[in-house]
Amino acid sequence: MNMENLILNQSVTHILLKCAFSPSLLGFDYIREVVEKCCKKENGYQNFITEIYKEVAESDNSTADKVDKRIRASLKDAKSRKGFLAMNEYFDERVYNGERDIPAQEAISILVEMSKLEFAKRNTINAKYLQNAGNAC
Question: For residue 131, with 0-12 CB atoms within 10 Å meaning exposed, 13-18 middle and 19 or more buried, which class applies?
């Protein structure tokens, strides 16, 4: 795994944990993989989420329906733990009030945007670290 993919993986994992997703649920890994794949697409990933479900299912010898079902279960679990309220903190704005269910594709879109912000932050920190390390030599 190259450095960029590692930072992306860490960023997505951080966001999922911040939003109270449980790593013990099968949907956690599916959501992480879907969000990572969406982050790597330039634009219009919303139109390809169902296709990405199929890719994820194939890589896990599963079906897109099972991936969808497990993702929805993870979303429901995170909502019950009030994890989506972290969206408000992250965007410094009231994005979610804790009451309504967020459709899976909308939740994934929000998680993608949060992960992109986290990735940019971590990438900047990493670049500064490497620059300072280079200057020290």
Answer: exposed
Other C-beta atoms closer than 10 Å to the C-beta of 104 total 19
Distance (Å, rounded) from C-alpha 137 to C-alpha 132? 9
Confidence category of residue 11, pLDDT binned at 50, 70, 90:
very high
| Residue range 59-84, pLDDT digits in tens | 999 999 999 999 999 999 999 998 88
d(CA 78, CA 85): 10
- CA dist 75 → 21, 105, 122 (Å): 7, 11, 25
Angle between helix axes 64-80 and 104-136 (nearest 10 degrees) is 80
Cα 19 to Cα 43, 61, 79, 92, 96, distances in angstroms: 24, 27, 9, 15, 12
Residue with tokens 């879109």, as numbered in its chain: 109
Two tokens, residue 98 = 């804790």
Phi, psi at 20, each rounded to 5°: 65, 30
b/e for 43-59, b at 16 or more Cβ within 10 A? eebeeebeebbeebbee
- Where does the pLDDT of residue 100 fall: very low under 50, low under 70, confident under 90, or very high at 90 and above? confident
